[in-house]
Amino acid sequence: MVNLFKKSFIYLALFMLVLVSFNVENAHAEDGYSENLIPKMTSNESDFGKASSSSNYGDTPSWKAFDGVLNYQNGSTYNAWGTTKETGWLAYEFTTPKAVSKYVMYNSGQWPTLFPNTWTFEAWDGSEWIVLDSQSNVTKEEWKKNPKQSFTFENTNFYNKYRVNIILANGATGTVKSGICELQMMEKISSSVESISLDKNELELVEGSQDKLTATVTPDTAKVIWASSDASIATVDQNGNVTAIREGQAIITATIENIDISATSAVNVKKPNNEFSNAILSITLVNGITKEYDVTNAVINNYLSWFDSAQGTSTFKFSKTISPYKKVTEYIVHDKIASFEVREY
What is the rounded CA–CA span in Å between residue 129 and residue 132? Predict the structure, then answer.
């Protein structure tokens, strides 16, 4: 009975160990961060970025902290950045901005007193260093136990240059007082963008008229890129404003930047109907005010011609009767027009 209990306990323990191992591996595989953003370096500069430091010992230049070798030394070859100072910094400058929110330091070798004890991880915003993460009291015993140390923090800002600023090492007494074997940086991978939709699936426009499409994305901070399938028929700006150019059909596409998710709206552009004699011209100004004019076909054509060719502070004159006045003349400034529509009757 005792032996049976012992066997059952052992099986249960093994099962729990396997389960824990499985969960740890899965958590690592799905941690939501990119691969290392820094390609392997063989000198202080590459096409992807530049390594630098406050100072370095002759055989341990800055780039060796980004050479892909995790050990401090292999034989007589050093594979790390090191400095003769007890404090100092190691930096990497990307050619394109990155939103780093995780970094990993590998420090392994027979001299753990070289490795950082207290430091900050910082980003350069163009005028000053911004502290993104702080660590303290990472002892030489901790580096012996865990040569790989990972650190995460919240950061959504994009910077070109990041650094580890060592405030205190672990008491090395040799020529090199502090150093880092390997430094890696990662971005958080966003998977929160799920959808995009437009408020109108199709637009019916007259040549020269305008309308606006509004995109709804999740999350609402995602950037939308607008494009037209045929800009000779209808154009769209990066605010979703659509302008009809000539008769025909075009597709307006709104795409979430850097993600293959999009929504479309079909635009059908028609020529103005010259058969009607009167229409209501409704003009919406950029301040939200709408002006309406009951005008003839000739006025509509003149207005469309003016709108296509005018710009800036050019004005178009409308005359209408408003009691108790005999006649009122209003002037519409071209660059104050947000959109307009023609309603035939």
Answer: 9
